[in-house]
Amino acid sequence: MDRAGAGVNRLPRWLIVSLAIMPAAALVVFYAWPFGSLLAEAVTGQAVSDTIGRTQTWDVVWFTLWQAVASTAITIALGLLPAAAVARFDFRGRSLLIGLLTAVFVLPTVVMGAAFLALLPDSLDRTVWAVIGAHVAFNLAVVVRVVGALWEHLPTDMEAAAGTLGASRWRVFTQISLPLIRPAVVAAASIVFLFTFTSFGVIRVLGAPGTRTIEVEVWRRATQLGDLGGAAVLVLLQLAILAVLVVWSTLAQRRHTRALALEPLARRRRARTAGERAFVVAAAGGAALIAVVPLTALVARSFSTPTGWSTSAWTDLGRTEVRPGLRVGVDPVGAIGNSLTTAAWATAFAVVIGGVASLAIVSARRHGRLLDTGLMLPLATSAVTIGLGMLITFDTDPFDWRASWWLVPVGHALVAVPFVVRTCVGVLRSVDPSMTDAAATLGAPPIPAWRATVVPYLWRPLGAGAALAAAISLGEFGATSFLSRSGGATLPIAIEQLLGRTGTTLQAQGYVLATILTLVTVAVVVVVERLQRGPAGR
Amino acid sequence: MSSLEVREVTVTFGDTTVLDRTDLSMASGEIVALVGPSGSGKSTLLRVIAGILQPDSGRVLIAGEDVTTVPTHRRGVGMVFQDNQLFPHMSTIDNVMFGPKMAGVPRAERFERAERWLRRVGLADLAHRSVTDLSGGEAKRVALARTMAAEPGVVLLDEPLTGLDRELHDRLAADLAQLLRSSEVTALLVTHDAAEAGAIADRTVALADLVAAPREHPPTPG
After folding, report:
1. Set of chain A residues whose Cβ sits within 8 Å of the Cβ of B73
2. Dihedral, B109, B114, B119, B122 alpha carbons, nearest 10
3. CA-nearest residue of chain A to B104?
4. Number of C-alpha atoms within 13 angstroms, CB side, residue A251?
5. How many whole angstroms separate alpha carbon A77 and alpha carbon B18?
6. What stretch of H or E contains B4?
7. Is the dihedral of CA B86, B88, B92, B96 positive or negative?
8. Residue A437: CA atoms inside 13 Å, Cβ hemisphere, count?
9. To the nearest whole angstrom, how far is the Cα of B218 from the nearest Cα of chain A?
10. Are the Cβ atoms of B85 and A259 closer than 8 angstroms?
11. Interface confidence (ipTM) of the complex
């Protein structure tokens, strides 16, 4: 039924406006304004010509590009094998494998960097190879989930048909399966490329002076060299490169989209022949090893000292003196406290802004789409950009908020709100509108009808959104790198600082914190899964 | 063309036995219709013969040679799938050229062969059409031409005429009978339509009758 016909039962405009005004204001003050000042900072001609003229700029761009291309290519090549195993075969541990890869994907970048630092020998651990390894382990889930989802729907008989026409397994893959799953491969490659091109946390932990991405260079210019203009120009340069790639990838995906006779779900079956069993074991086992081994190394290193295994790094976490009277300026226990406080506030901000915004978006229809798109923008902006924008903007009276305790949680909330909104809007949109109509026929005026039939469905996705926001805040590193005050270091910041120091005690403490952060993040993700899997909206 | 023999093939999916010690023997050049109710395992038997499905036990022999462990692409068994399984990313003629291409036939020759088969099924005009634009009857003919162009020794047809309207069905049945006979190919046709079976095949067998004779127990010593 055309919903426009229900005009007389609509919610009053003042209610929708008052719901929308707070999220819209937050977006303008903490996203649009900082982004605008960042642009203004960059367009001073001097900064542009200095940055463009510097050969170092182009070295950084070149490194960013080639490491992203290499990471993406290796991730796709390695990921297609488990994707095929997951799409085509039923095997014990199948959903465990998918869950494991997904859990790795949501781990904080700093943790993944720490895991590869723990895994690799000293000769390799601060090289581009460590960076690429961490990128691959991180993003395997993207390929398995995105490509697997399409492959699963590709009729198995189409591959069998090619076999009856004389095509070997390899030729079936190259001539039939690969061309048909290409849209998903391009989509997965675009996502992996985006993540690795804008890689920040992994490189801060694993990078050496020669291995800097644009993001790291932005941070270095802004916070280490005090060159805000140069940093802003680099942000725009990165945006320009990404814009070109997004256009290309959209065109490529459109060109390869075909009307496929997709089966609802092709039959998955157990591997029957020895060859099939070997393939499943190798593909699934290999992927599981790539995910598990670095994390195991991380935990192991938190227990290792030059003199053997010991729990001393765990038990001495509160001792901040390296030698009597000598402190290194990192307080591990304090960082845990800071992270928990920050995450609590960031979650509260994100839940309030995201929940209210979701109600506004669903009720406001056409204008709701504008708010929806606006709130998604921070997702398309790198955290480093957000951090830099806020750093530039909030440093002059009366808006000198850099010392305010709430600035970091607000930055985190900005990054988390899109996830809260996406989780809630999907559920709210699926509420049957005739239920509200039914309430109206029972005598309920628009607002009570809405409160009785729509609002109750908000709580459950909001719970999942809250957990997601907490996980994002706990692991957030990009924006925090710009906004963190001394003494206010969160876990990711402390981990990066500890691992960057020499001395096994400090390193072991870094690994302890990374292990704690891993455990907390995984626990939160399990909560999200539980909340989303239960009966929807009740 | 090759003779085809299926010996005591058993297939189970979990607890269900789909084929239980099934036997089938076909002479070279023979056209056999396999009938039986749906879900009785007819398609499963075709999959075992083509090597798409490994049987739990039993053997498949083609031209007297045991091919049970030979992969599909080296068996010389062609198959027309019930839902055709045309490759949607290729044009009609590229679909028909696929088999010759896999066999390493030079480009000019495989083009010529594909055109010849498209002519034989009456679709020469549609060579460069996308297969997603074909009607049901056209797609079926292309699937048949694609299988025949690969020049298999044995052709399997899984309900090739199901889902077509009556008039088209009858016309295609006549065409198919004529085409299989003139190509002197060994063909096994699965159908649930006895009239269709009679119109196309040399003989009709029911899957239920294909269970192997009870194994003779070796005489107990003493």
Report:
1. 163-169, 171-172
2. 180
3. A166
4. 6
5. 38
6. strand B4-13
7. negative
8. 11
9. 31
10. no
11. 0.85
Contact A164 B146 (CB under 8 A): no
Interface of B with A in 91-120 (CB under 8 A): 98-99, 102-103
DSSP symbols for B133-166: G--HHHHHHHHHHHHHHT--SEEEEESTTTTS-H
CA distance A242 to A232: 15
A163 interaction partners in chain B (CB closer than 8 Å) = 50-52, 71-73
Q: Which domains does chain B have, with CATH numbers?
A: 29-41+71-202 (3.40.50.300)
Reading the block at residue A405, the tokens are 């305790």
Residue B94: closest CA among B145, B52, B59: B145
Domain boundaries, chain A: 12-43+323-533, 67-220+251-302
Task: Tell me if A160 and B88 make a contact (CB, 8 A cut-off).
Answer: no
CB-based contact A157 B85, cutoff 8 Å: yes
Distance CA A333, CA A338 (A): 9
Show which of residues 66-95 on chain B sit within 8 Å of chain A, judged by CB atoms: 71-74, 77-79, 81, 83, 85, 87-89
pLDDT string in tens for chain A (538-residue length) = 334 434 667 888 899 999 999 999 999 999 999 999 888 887 777 888 888 888 888 999 999 999 999 999 999 999 999 999 999 999 999 988 988 898 888 899 999 999 999 998 888 888 889 999 999 999 999 999 999 988 988 888 999 999 999 999 999 999 999 999 988 998 899 889 999 999 999 999 998 777 899 999 999 998 889 888 899 999 999 999 888 888 887 787 676 655 555 555 667 888 878 888 999 999 999 999 999 999 999 999 988 877 888 888 888 777 766 666 666 677 888 899 999 999 999 999 999 999 999 999 998 877 888 899 899 888 888 889 999 999 889 887 778 887 788 899 999 999 999 999 999 998 898 888 778 888 888 878 888 889 888 899 999 899 989 988 999 999 999 999 998 887 789 999 999 998 988 777 888 889 999 999 999 988 888 887 777 765 544 3
- CATH homologous superfamily for A12-43+323-533? MetI-like (1.10.3720.10)
Report the 3 state secondary structure along A366-419: HHHHHHHHHHHHHHHCCHHHHHHHHHHHCCCCCCCCCCCCCHHHHHHHHHHHHH
Q: Which residues on A lie below 8 Å from B99 (Cβ)?
A: 165-166
Subunit contact B79:A164, Cβ cutoff 8 A: yes
Q: For residues A410 and A350, is the Cβ–Cβ distance under 8 A?
A: no
Q: What superfamily would CATH give domain A67-220+251-302?
A: MetI-like (1.10.3720.10)
pTM attached to this predicted model: 0.84
Chain B contact present for A168, CB below 8 A? yes
B-facing residues of A in 238-297 (CB < 8 A) are 258-261, 272-273
Q: Does B133 touch chain A (CB under 8 A)?
A: no
- For B77, the closest chain A residue by CA position comes to A164
Contacts of B85 in chain A (CB under 8 A): 155, 157-158, 160-161
Give the closest-approach CA distance of A273 to chain B in angstroms: 7
Whose tokens are 């651990």? That residue is: A125
The count of other CB atoms within 10 Å of the CB of residue A301 is 23
Q: Calculate how close chain B gets to A161, using CA atoms only, in Å.
A: 7
Query: In angstroms, rounded to a whole number, what is the distance separating the alpha carbons of residues B125 and B117?
Result: 12
